[in-house]
Amino acid sequence: MSEFNAKWKFPLFLIGVAGLLTFSVFTDSPLKQNWGMLSAAILLVAILFLYWGFEISPASTREIAIIAVLGAIAALGRVSLAALPNIQPVTFLVLVSGYVFGARTGFMVGSTAALASNFFLGQGPWTPWQMFAWGLAGSSAAYFRAIIPDVWKWPMVIFQFTWGYFFGCIMNIWTWTAFITPLSWQSFLATYAASLWFDTLHAVGNVLFYLFLGSGVIKVLQRVKRKLEVSYLPVQNYDHTR
C-alpha cells in the first residue's frame, strides 16, 4: 500500500492543482475576478509544496548537482535562442531528463530552467505557469517511459511534438485568464488560435532538437545515471576461527 501511495502521490497532487484551477474558472464566484493573479498564486503555492517535498526527500547531492547542471543548460539554451520565435531547447532537454532520471528530477529540471532563464528574460506572474508547465513536461516523460521502456525513435518524436502544443495550451490559459474578457470557450478558442503558429514552431523545434541531438543526449544522461547509482553487495559472514 505504501508503494502505491508513493507512486501516485505526485500525479494525484498535480491533478488536484489542475482541478482547483478549473473549479476557480468555471464557477460563478468572486474567484473569477482577477483570476490571472489568483491562478499564479495557486501555482506558486503548489510549486513551493513540491520544492518542500523535494527538500525533505532523501535526495543525494549527486542528484541535486544533476538538476542544477541540466536546469542551467536548459536555461542557457532558452536565453541564447530567445530571438527565435518559440524555438528553444528547454522542452526537449526537460523531456529527456525526466525520461532518464524520473518524474521528480524531470519536474525540478523544468521548473528550475524556467525560473533561472526568467532572471534574464523577465520575471512576472507568468513565471509560476512556466515553471509548472515545464515541470509537468519533465514528470510526464517518466510516465511515458513506464509505457515505452526502450528509447524508440518515433514514439519519442511524437511525444516531443505533442508537448509543444501541450505547453502552449497551458500558457494560453494564463494569457486567457489574465488578459481576455469575458472568460468563455469562444474566447479561449480564439486565444489558442492566435498562438497556434507559435505552438507549431515550438513543436517542430522540439522534434528537430531530438532528431539531431536526442540519441546522443540520452546516451550521455544514461551513462551519468549508471555512474551515480550505488550498488550494495550482500554482507557475507566469515568464520574467523578457521
Fraction of residues in β-strands: under 5%
CATH architecture: Orthogonal Bundle
CATH third-level topology: Arp2/3 complex 21 kDa subunit ARPC3
User: Can you tell me the CATH class?
Assistant: Mainly Alpha
User: Number of domains in the coordinates?
Assistant: 1
Q: Structural class given helices, strands, pairing?
A: mainly alpha
How would you portray this structure in words?
There is one protein chain. This protein has 242 residues and is mainly α. The protein has one domain: Arp2/3 complex 21 kDa subunit ARPC3, CATH 1.10.1760.20. It has helices spanning 2-26, 35-56, 61-80, 90-101, 103-121, 126-147, 153-179, 185-194, 196-228. Helix 4 runs parallel beside helix 9 and helix 7 crosses helix 9. It is globular and about 55 Å long.
Keywords:
242 residues; mainly alpha; Arp2/3 complex 21 kDa subunit ARPC3; 9 helices; globular; disordered N terminus
Question: What's the quick description here?
Answer:
The protein contains 9 helices and no strands.
Topology, element by element:
Elements: H1 2-26, H2 35-56, H3 61-80, H4 90-101, H5 103-121, H6 126-147, H7 153-179, H8 185-194, H9 196-228
Helix pairs in contact: 1-2, 2-6, 2-7, 3-4, 3-5, 4-5, 4-6, 4-9, 5-6, 6-7, 7-8, 7-9
